[in-house]
Amino acid sequence: MGKSVMIKVEKLNKTFGDLHVLKDIDMTVNESDVVCVIGASGSGKSTLLRCLNFLEVKDSGTIYIGGEKVERETHDLNEIRTRVGMVFQHFHLFPHMTVIENIMEAPINVKKIPKDQAYKEAKGLLVKVGLSDKESVYPGKLSGGQKQRVAIARALAMKPDVMLFDEPTSALDPELVGEVLVTMKELALEGMTMIVVTHEIGFAKEVANGVVYMHDGRIVEVGHPKKIFEQPTEQRTKDFLDSVL
Amino acid sequence: MEWLNTFIKSYPVFLKGMWLTFELTAVAIFIGIFIGLFFAFLKISNIKILEWIADTYIFLIRGTPLVVQIFVFYYGLTSLNISQFLAVVLGLAFHNGAYIAEIFRGTIQSIDKGQMEAARSLGMNLKLTYRRIILPQALRRAMAPLGNQFIIALKDSSLAAFIGMYELFNVATTYGSNTFDYMTYLLVVAVYYLFLVLVFSILVRYVEKRLAVSD
Fold it and tell me: Whole-prediction pTM value?
C-alpha cells in the first residue's frame, strides 16, 4: 500500500440512446498499476476508457483523476487530458506530419515547450520505442506496429500520469503484435500507470497486476490476474475465459 | 489564315481583356475562399441558427442564376458608391463562396473523426485541432474540387460583360459586332479562355502535388 490513487470511478453510467453501455461502474487504479480490462466486444470496455479521457460525456457518476474530482463544467478538460495519455486501436497518427512532428505537435502547441527541447525529447521517445531511424518518415510509410509505437511515443510526449490503451493491438497483423506489447511492457516496468483494454490474455497474465472483467456494461469481477485467470469466482468470467483461451 | 491575322492584330485589346478577366476571377476566388470557409464552419457548428443562416445563403445562391446575382450586386452596390469592379467581384465571390462552402464542409467532414479524438486526447483545444490537424488535411482533399470550381469561376466571369465590364467576352462581342464577324472573334476569345484555363489547371495541379508529398 502507500501508493496514491491515480484514477477512481464511482457509479459511472453511460447510455447511447436506449442502450445502457456502462452500469454503475466502480473502479480504482493506483499509481503504477497496470490494469487490463477484458470482456467481449460490446461489453463497454472502450466506452469506459473513453469516459476516463472525457471523449465521451458520462450520464452520471464521478471520475477522480489524481485524487481530484473532475467535472466537465468546472474543469479545463484540455488540461486534464494532457495528464491522461490515450492510445487508440487505429493509431490516428496525423498523416500530414512526419513521425517526429506527430510527437512534437502537442508539446509545442499545448505545453508551449521550446522547439529544440521538444525535438530532443521526441528523439528520446523514438529511441525508446525503437524507431529512431523513422524520424522524418510520414505515417503512411510505416507498418501497423510501427504506427502504434509512434502513437505511444506521441502520447508519452505529454508526460502523462496515466496511459489509456484502447485495444492497442487489435488492428495489427499477428506478427506485429509482439513489438507493441514489448513497448508497453517496458513502459509498465518503468512504473507507468496503465489501463489497457485488450484481448491479449498473455499480456494481462504477464504484465498486469489487476484484471477487470466486464460483461454487458458491468464490472463482473476484479482481481489479480492469477486469480482471475486461474480461479475465477464468477461463472460468466469462466465462460468468457473458456471462449478466448 | 485570315483568322490568324485577326488573332495577331487584335492581341493588345484581348490581352487587356484577359488581364481583367484574370483579375476578376483571382480576387473573386480569393474572397470566395474565405466566404466558403466561413459558411462551412457555420454548417458544421451544430448550432441551429448558424446552420440555418448557411443553408439559406447556399439555397439562395444555388437557386438563382449568376447573371441575376451579378445584376443585384451591381445595382445594389454601385448605388452605395462602390466601384463597378468591386461590385462584380463581390457578386462572383459570394456566388462561388456558396459552392466552396459545400466543398470545404464535405472535405472537413470527410476527415476521420479519430483525428479529432487523437488531437483532443493530447490536450489540444478545438481551435488548435482545426487549425493544425483538421484543416490542413481537409484543404488537401479540397484541392481537386476547388480547382474545378476555380475554372468554373473563370468562365463565369464572362457574365460581367452584361454590366459593361470590358473583360474577354465583352471584347470579343464588341469586336464581333463592329466588324459583323462574330465567329472569328468568338473563336479568338475561345483561345484566350483555353489558355487561362490551362494556366489555372497547371497551377492547381502544382499546388496539389506540393501538398501531397506526405501521402
Answer: 0.87
- Does A97 contact B214 at a Cβ distance shorter than 8 Å? yes
- Asked if the Cβ–Cβ distance from B123 to A95 is below 8 Å, we say no
Report the distance separating Cα A21 and Cα B81, nearest Å.
63
* Contact check, Cβ <8 Å, A55/B125: no
- Decide if A94 and B121 are in contact by the 8 Å CB cutoff: no
SS (H, E, C) chain A: CCCCEEEEEEEEEEEECCEEEEEEEEEEEECCCEEEEECCCCCCHHHHHHHHCCCCCCCEEEEEECCEEECCCCCCHHHHHHHEEEECCCCCCCCCCCHHHHHHHHHHHCCCCCHHHHHHHHHHHHHHCCCHHHCCCCHHHCCHHHHHHHHHHHHHCCCCCEEEEECCCCCCCHHHHHHHHHHHHHHHHCCCEEEEECCCHHHHHHHCCEEEEEECCEEEEEECHHHHHHCCCCHHHHHHHHHHC
Instruction: Annotate A38-77 with b (16+ C-beta within 10 A) or e (fewer).
Output: bbbeebbbbbbbbbbbbbbebeebebebbeeebeeeeeeb
Considering only the beta carbons, identify the residue of A85, A90, A96 that sits closest to B137. A96
Contact A238, A232 (CB under 8 A): yes
Which residues are CB-contacts of A91 (< 8 A; sequence separation ≥ 6)?
A: A139, A144, A147, A148, A150, A151, A171
- Chain B hits for A82, CB-CB cut-off 8 Å, are 122-123
- Tell me how close the Cα of B37 comes to any Cα of chain A, in angstroms: 20
* Rounded-to-integer distance, Cα B130 and Cα B135, Å: 5
Shortest alpha-carbon distance between residue B119 and chain A (Å): 8
The three cell numbers of residue A59 are: 450520464
Q: CA of B99: how far to CAs of A142, B6, B35, B136, in Å?
A: 36, 38, 10, 19
Nearest by CB: B114 against A53, A92, A96 = A92
From B49's Cα to the closest Cα of chain A, the distance in A is: 24
pLDDT digit string (tens) for chain B, length 215 residues? 688 888 888 888 889 999 999 999 999 999 999 999 999 999 999 999 999 999 999 999 999 999 999 999 999 888 888 888 999 999 999 999 999 999 999 999 999 999 999 999 999 999 999 999 999 999 989 998 999 999 999 999 999 888 888 888 988 899 888 888 888 889 999 999 999 999 999 988 888 888 776 55
Q: Which three cell numbers stand for residue A35?
A: 490494469
